[in-house]
Amino acid sequence: MHYPQSLQPKLALKTIMESLSVNYPFADKSYEFDKLKNLKAACFVSLHIDKNGDKQLRGCIGTLSPVTDSLFDEICDNARSAAFHDPRFLPLQKNELENLTISVDVLAPFEHIESKKQLDPKIYGVIVQNGTRRGVLLPDLDGVDDVDTQISIACRKAGISSDEEITLYRFKVVRYY
């Protein structure tokens, strides 16, 4: 099992393991997580499964603005959602824990931008919006090397075609492994 180095993915792993009724075998003290109860921020929890050296997405759920009272609760809720309620995947099973890698992206507030020239896919995540449809793509993802690819993927996720007008937003993250 891949043991996370940072507090945020440790909490996500602990939450997922407890949801699967698996004992969390690591010696973290629960009070270490308390500092996350005093912070308020949005986050995404991403799960990857290592299949013969190839890390494949297994779940990714998050929020663009905080919806709970603390980062602690935000991580726990998004970890459970990524593991068990991501509509792209079946619920995570106990036997997948062995090859699971978790990252947690803590988001800075997003900002409206006027032009795609204000984006850099390695630095900024993007939000595209048309009416009530909205697509999100985190920054610094494998295979997303240019702004047009980043916007195209976010639009596809939102069901926005390339000929429709979009409003752009960007945000930065701190990614924890």
Summarize the structure.
Helix content is 22%, strand content 28%. It is of the alpha+beta class and 177 residues long.
Attribute tags:
single chain, 177 residues, Dna Ligase, domain 1, four-stranded antiparallel beta sheet
Helicity range:
10-25%
Tally of individual helices: 3
The neighbouring-strand order within the major sheet is: 2-1-3-8
Given the C-alpha coordinates, what overall shape results? globular
Overall structural domain count: 2
Q: Roughly what is the average pLDDT, rounded to an integer?
A: 96
Radius of gyration: 17 Å
CATH class of the largest domain: Alpha Beta
Q: How many strands, what sense, and barrel or not for the largest sheet?
A: 4 strands, antiparallel
CATH fold call of the largest domain: Glycoprotein, Type 4 Pilin
Structural class comes to alpha+beta
Q: List low-confidence stretches.
A: none
CATH architecture of the largest domain: 2-Layer Sandwich
String of helices and strands: HEEHEEEEHEE
**Total number of strands:** 8
Name of the CATH superfamily of the largest domain: Hypothetical protein ph0010, domain 1
Strand percentage lies at 25-35%
Distance between the termini: 14 Å
